[in-house]
Amino acid sequence: QVVQEMEAALEEVQTGEITTATRTVEIDGVKVKEGQIIGMLNGKLMVSAPELEEACISLLRK
Q: What is the C-alpha to C-alpha distance for residues 48 and 2, in angstroms, rounded to an integer?
């Protein structure tokens, strides 16, 4: 029972990543300048921002 509940819970898990862009690019409508902070959700680029705090908050709202 517990294992089944844990496996079901895994389907709800999402992964967020914050890092610094190494180049200027536009992916899926998200424009990024080299040096900006970018946020990815489940491996997909979702946000870019000049400041870490802004990128984190924007990503959490996705």
A: 39
